[in-house]
Amino acid sequence: MTAAMPPLLRSSTPPLSYSPTPAQGQAATPIAFVQAIVAAYALRGMDASAALAKAQIEPQLLTQPHARITAMQMEWVSGLAMQELDDEGLGWFSRRLPWGSYGMLVRASLSAPTLRVALQRWCRHHGLLTDDIALSLSEHEGIACLELNEVRSLGELQEFCVVSVLRNALGVACWLTDSRIPLQGTELRFTAPAHQASYQVLFDGPTRFSAPEHRLLFDARYLELPVRRDDAALQHMLQRALLLMVRPYRRDRLLVEKVRQALAQHPEHCRNADDLAHWLNLSARTLHRQLKEEGASLQQLKDAVRRDVAVAQLQRSHRPVKQIAALAGFNNEKSFIRAFKGWTGQTPQAFRQKV
Hints:
- By secondary structure, the protein is of the alpha+beta class.
- The chain has helices spanning 31-43, 49-54, 71-85, 101-109, 115-129, 158-177, 199-202, 231-237, 242-245, 254-265, 273-279, 284-293, 298-316, 321-327, 333-344, 348-354; strands spanning 27-30, 68-70, 133-140, 143-150, 183-187, 207-208, 214-219.
- It folds into 2 domains: 27-245, no CATH class; 254-354, Orthogonal Bundle (Arc Repressor Mutant, subunit A).
- 47% of the residues lie in helices and 10% in strands.
- The protein has a 5-stranded mixed sheet with strand order 3-4-7-5-6, covered by helices on one side. The protein has a two-stranded antiparallel ribbon with strand order 1-2.
- A hairpin with a 2-residue loop joins β3 and β4.
- The chain is elongated and about 80 Å long.
- The N and C termini lie far apart (56 Å).
- Mean pLDDT is 87; it is low at 10-19.
C-alpha cells in the first residue's frame, strides 16, 4: 500500500493529461491533505472546486475525517493547485514558491560527490526559497538527522507542510543515490492526528508524535553513498515526481558499503562468504543476491579492498612486498604480484618507485 504526497518537484511545463483516471487505484491518502489544499485556496481567496472535480474528489469527503483518496487523485489535485495558486509550496509559506523551485534545488545537488554534501546543499538552498522553516543535517553516534524547525507558525497547514517537505527531501535522497534509505524513526512536534495509522505508510520505522522537533533519523552511513544521477536523469524524473513521494526504491545500496567496511576493518570475519554473511546477519544466498542487485559481487569488493590496502601500504610505508601481500590478504607474494599487475598494469615494485 502506498500513500502519496504532493509532487513538489515538477518540470517547467507540467502536463496533467496522463491516464489512468485519478480515482483508479487503492485509496490510502488521508483526506486531511486535501483539506489543507482547500485551505490554501481559501487563504488566497480562491475556490478549489474545479481542481477537486478534475481530480474526481467528491466535496462531501472533505467533511469525513477518515476518508481516503488514491495516489493519483492526490497527484492531480496537488499538481492543479500548484498551477492555479502559482505556488509549489501550496500556501505553506509567507511567500510563494514559483514553478520549478524544488527542481532547482535538486539540480543544485546533482554535482555533489556524496549524499552528505547533497543534503547539506539542499538544506542551505531551501533557506533561499523561504525563511519560514529551516532545514538542517546533523550526525550523532552513527545516526543521521534531517531536522525541520518552524521559524514561523505554520498554523493549520503545519502537518501538510512538515510531512510534505520531509518526505520530499527523503525521496530526493533516495533518488540521488538510487537507493532505498530506511528510516530508524520519524519525530513530529504535532499531536497524533485522527489518521495517524497512515503514518505507517507515510514513513517507515516508528513515528513519534508530540516530539521536541520535526526530524527524520537514519543510518549515517547512507550519507557517504555517491550521487548517481545527472541532468538527463533529472529531466526524466521531473515528468512524474510523484514517484519520489511513494519511494519505489527496493534496492539498498548500503550493503556494498557495509561489505567494504567489513572486509577492510574485520578481515577475521570475512574468510569466506558464509563467515561474512553471518557477521552481517544475512544468509550467504541473500548476501550474493543483494550484491548482484546492486551491480557488485563479493569477489569484486574483495579485490577492491585488497587493492586499496596494497596501494596505501606501497605509498605510505617501507614494508617489504611480501609483508604487504600478507596484509592485503594474499597467501604468497607471487599471487599478490600477479593480482596487483592486473589491477594497475604495474608490479608493486614499479608502482612504489613512481610514488
